[in-house]
Design a protein that fits this description.
The chain is an alpha+beta fold. It contains four helices and six strands, in the order H-H-E-E-H-E-E-E-E-H. It has a single domain, classed as Nuclear Transport Factor 2, Chain: A. Helices cover 32% and strands 45% of the residues. It has a six-stranded mixed β-sheet with strand order 2-1-6-5-4-3, with helices on both faces. Strand 3 and strand 4 form a beta hairpin. The protein is globular and about 45 Å long.
């Protein structure tokens, strides 16, 4: 990406699309060969792990949007260096199937290529997610 401020605006728009449930807008931020990973052990949490390429990321993001409504996002910090950015956010999330809301913090590590997200690794409280989603 061109500079830190451009990168920050790009990430903010991707977050706004995710938070607003705009799957088309969100997917426009991803490179065709992108990788999205929810960091964690898939044996401990089925949602954890990596998905590759636009169709698979779209499917995963559509499911995430349908199950986890992001009610509020506060960006605590944004760091950019070269083709990478790190974002620490506090989220208020509603788990739609159980109509349960919770507040948690996440860290997102972005890598950009050709003006798009080529890699996004999200670090979240997988133990909390497992607890909230149990039995759903």
């Amino acid at each position: 990406m061109a500079d830190r401020e451009t990168m920050r605006r790009f990430v903010a728009q991707a977050y706004a699309d995710r938070d607003g449930g705009n799957i088309d807008g969100l997917m426009s931020a991803f490179h065709a060969e992108a990788v999205f990973e929810l960091a964690g052990e898939p044996k401990a949490l089925a949602l954890a792990g990596a998905v590759r390429s636009h169709p698979n990321i779209r499917e995963a993001m559509t499911a995430f949007i349908g199950h986890f409504e992001f009610v509020k996002r506060d960006i605590i910090s944004f760091i950019a260096d070269g083709d990478r950015a790190a974002v620490h956010s506090r989220l208020t999330v509603r788990f739609v199937p159980k109509d349960v809301s919770f507040t948690t913090e996440v860290a997102d590590l972005f890598k950009f290529q050709d003006g798009k997200i080529i890699e996004l690794v999200e670090f979240a409280d997988t133990a909390l997610i497992k607890e909230i989603t149990a039995g759903a």
